[in-house]
Amino acid sequence: MDKQSVIESIDALIAKLELEKPQKDSLEWYLMNNLRAYRDALLAATEGREVERATHALSRFCTESMDWDTEVFRQCTAITTKGMRLAR
Question: For the stretch 40-77, what's the b/e string if a residue is b when 16 or more beta carbons lie within 10 angstroms of its beta carbon?
Fold first, then answer.
């Protein structure tokens, strides 16, 4: 797993969410903010444990805030799975 692949997955989900024009303070709006922060953290990371910490933070947001039976949750989970592989 390379960093660029994870970044592309993040960018694709952000683009999809932006098309829906989420209202401020909606779940989708917070998810976009979390995805952007995660993307920035991955770009800045120089060690696997930095990637792992950032991935855990995104994963926690997804599992605690989202409906697990939605496509967007599955996409978020796929991103965090890639992130954990990258952290190794």
Answer: ebbeebeeeeebbebbeebbebbeeebeeeeebbebbb
